[in-house]
Amino acid sequence: MKDYSEYAELLANVEKPGRYVGGEYASEIPDPAKAGLRVCFCFPDTYEIGMSNLGVKILADCFNKTGFAVCERSYMPWPDMCEQLEKHGVPLYALESGDPLRDFDVAAFTLQYELSYTNVLQMLSLGGIPLTTAERAEGDPVVIAGGPCAYNPEPLADFIDIFSIGEGEESLVELAEYLYECKKKGVSRAETLYGASKLPGFYVPSLYKAEYNADGTLASFAPLREGVPATVVKRVITDLDKVSFPRECAVPFLETVHDRVMLEVFRGCLRGCRFCQAGMIYRPYREKSPETLNADAKAAIAHSGYSEIALTSLSISDYSRLPRLIDDLLEWTDGKMVNLSLPSMRIDSFYEELLKKVSSVRKSGLTFAPEAGTQRLRDVINKNITEEEILLACERSFDGGRTSLKLYFMNGLPTETDDDIKGIAMLAQKIVDLYYSKKRQGGGRGVNVTVSVSCFVPKPFTPFQWVKQDTIEELERKQQLLKECIRTNKISYKYHDARVSRVEAVFARGDRKLCKALALAHERGMKLDGWDEFFDYDEWMRVFAESGVDPAFYANREFGRDELLPWDFIDIGVTKRFMKDEYARAMNGETTPDCRTECSGCGAAKLGGARCVCRERSGGNA
Ligand code: SF4
Questions:
Q1: Mean of all residue pLDDT scores within the chain
Q2: According to DSSP H, which parts of 262-351 are helical?
Q3: Which one of 205, 289, 549, 553 counts the least CB within 10 Å of its CB?
Q4: Measuring CA to CA, which residue among 455, 459, 463, 462 is closest to residue 496?
Q5: How far is the CA of 600 from the centre of ligand 1 (A)?
Q6: Where are the beta strands (DSSP E) in 139-284?
Q7: How many CA atoms lie within 13 A of 453 on its CB side?
Q8: Ligand 1 binding pocket includes 612 (Cβ within 6 Å)
Q9: Contact predicate 540/514, CB 8 Å
Q10: How far apart are CA 440 and CA 3, in angstroms?
């Protein structure tokens, strides 16, 4: 473990030194000096967020279990620490050994959010790693990146050596084995990257060429060397019960965003909301067994001493064995005063009994996501839920003694009109009226309905990937309209900054031309754009203008249905044909059933022999 006394002066001048010293309970790793391959997992946001990310824990654990790779951690420093590092000429280091990022064989980033891209550049440069693939020399770390934003890797094409597409538990171990072999044999950097491009699930951007039409759209996208695949197929785990779960993670001393054990119950989603990228890229739907989950939870609680287990997955009430899982968990968590918490649930599969059971441990406010205020628009986005179901769920919740509800909506959705916006206020008002329509237990406190509204961002690999985002003016007008429609203080209204969503849309649908803008943003010292206090829209507009990027081209343009899209070379299983059909159905107001009701043949079941629900139904012949 690093002796941090030499950093005493830096640490004395930062707000939260605990972010930068490691040494947490159970953070020991095998001796880095004896590692065959040294990996630093770099989280491009603060320690508190990074330490709450389950994916990072899973993948770091996979590296450490190889027996030859040792994985350390580094997080995006807060500006006070960036300043101290620069002032004292100390490179950004990994928490376990205190060694600079540049000393590692691999620097691995996870891309959770487009507005963390400037943090990636900042961490590279603070860590002493040349910013671009082109500038890196023999001996520099191989910079890899994965996560949801890697499904459109192009805005970061200049900066990342290898992208990991899809689930990494198996593929990253294969990559680590390959890189370790290359290191032992002294294979050159260029040949190492070339070989990596042929491994399934990896994309090496420097080995592809993008050409553009005069109007800025993509004309062609092709490999530069023979043997480099034209299409990169995402990796999926076939059997989730067989992948390793990190039962002994470091327990932070600082308060983090999620101080609890997180149990990933399944991957994928049965639904098919047309705006939702996660619902498409994580297909096919695969569950873990209650036995595996229960054993993992028990071991993780015993190790960490946490007093809460959160069940995490996209739409938790779709888990086919949820009542059994909850019963198994409550059998031992009740006695240990360990809480169970459930994420936002779909209202239509509201398990009253289940919630009562969970409430016996902890009573928390409930969150639902109707997403749109009218049935017409809910049908367009394929949120298969009716107003009656929403009201029934709220009624049950109130009858159960809850007085607080949070409802998530979006504005700017395709085909949205002012009536849809007004519909949000009307629905929230109906819920308030419903509460007061009966004498309720605990009624003295009254009800509070929070309406939280985000702005629609068109995302790659969704049926709405071609749709333009509303302009800022239009989004802000709609936000104001909704504000005017809310007439009671029983409804709290929160909405997102439309300007943030616009920059997010630019990078979500961006291409390689955005690398120039990112490099310039970094040069200007821009970072932590996901934090309100640092996001500077006007500066972003200046950066775009100076780098020849028109943000409207990416955010506010309807993409052609036959246009070559920057992410078309990635195969997520779900076909473009399916997404086009889904878009057409949306425009006709037609809904598509969930996967358990009927398979719509999206294409995801073909991947890696994964057992999608349709395969299970048809005995594996779908
Ligand atoms: S293959 Fe069928 S069941 Fe599987 S995710 Fe696609 S639509 Fe759903």
A1: 91
A2: 278-281, 290-304, 322-333
A3: 289
A4: 455
A5: 6
A6: 142-146, 162-164, 202-203, 208-212, 218-223, 232-233, 261-264, 266-267
A7: 28
A8: yes
A9: no
A10: 59
Strand partners for 263: 311
Task: Label residue 621 by pLDDT band (50, 70, 90).
Answer: very low
Q: Whose CA is nearest to atom 6 of ligand 1?
A: 602
- Answer yes or no: pTM beyond 0.70: yes
Name the residue among 13, 202, 214, 4 with its Cα closest to residue 99. 4
Taking the CA of residue 283 as reference, the ligand 1 atom at the shortest distance is 5
Distance in angstroms (rounded) separating the CA atoms of residues 205 and 273: 30
Q: Is 408 helix (H, G, I), strand (E, B) or coil?
A: strand
User: What does the alpha-carbon distance between residue 275 and residue 505 come to, in Å, rounded to a whole number?
Assistant: 13
Q: Which amino acid is at 251?
A: V
Of 280, 572, 578, 602, the residue with max ligand 1 atoms within 8 A of its CB, to mutate for a pocket test, comes to 602
151 CA → ligand 1 middle, Å: 19
**Is residue 555 within 8 Å of 469, Cβ to Cβ?**
yes
CA–chain centroid gap for 397, Å, is 29
Is the minimum distance from the CB of 284 to ligand 1 under 6 angstroms? yes
Q: Is 236 in the pocket of ligand 1 (CB under 6 A)?
A: no
Q: Alpha helix locations (H) across 31-73?
A: 47-50, 54-64
- Cα gap 536→550, rounded to integer Å: 17
Q: What gap in Å lies between CA 310 and CA 259, rounded to an integer?
A: 10
Q: Is the CB of 602 under 6 A from ligand 1?
A: yes
Supply 545's token pair.
């203008």
| Closest ligand 1 atom to Cα of 285 | 5
Element housing 592 (H / E):
none
> 233 C-alpha to center of ligand 1: Å?
17
Measured from the Cα of 599, ligand 1's closest atom is: 2
Q: For ligand 1, atom 2, which residue shows the shortest CA distance?
A: 599
Tokens of 1: 């473990």
Structure tokens at 56: 């990072």
Q: CA dist 439 to 140, 435, 436, Å?
A: 68, 8, 7
Rounded to the nearest 10 degrees, how much is the dihedral formed by the CA atoms of 174, 179, 180, 182? 130
518, 118 contact by CB (below 8 A): yes
Please, are residues 389 and 395 in contact by the beta-carbon 8 Å criterion?
Answer: no
| Separation of CA 622 and ligand 1 centre (Å) | 9
2 close to 22: Cβ distance less than 8 angstroms: yes
Angle at 612 between CA 610 and CA 616, to 5 degrees: 110
DSSP H or E run through 21? none
Residue 370 one-letter amino acid? P
Give the residue carrying structure tokens 């990310």: 53
Per residue in 130-154, pLDDT (tens digit) is 999 999 999 999 999 999 999 999 9
Distance of CA 55 to the CA centre of its chain: 9
Q: What is the pLDDT of residues 237-280, one digit of tens each?
A: 989 998 888 888 888 888 888 888 889 999 999 999 999 999 99
In whole angstroms, give the CA distance from residue 203 to residue 145.
Answer: 10
What tokens appear for 219 in the block?
A: 């004309």
Q: Where are the alpha helices (DSSP H) in 491-573?
A: 498-508, 514-523, 537-546, 551-555
Strands 232-233 vs 218-223: parallel, antiparallel or unpaired: unpaired
Concatenated DSSP letters for 360-423?
A: TT----EEEEEESSSHHHHHHTT----HHHHHHHHHHHHHTT--EEEEEEEES-TT--HHHHHH
Minimum-distance ligand 1 atom for the alpha carbon of 270: 8
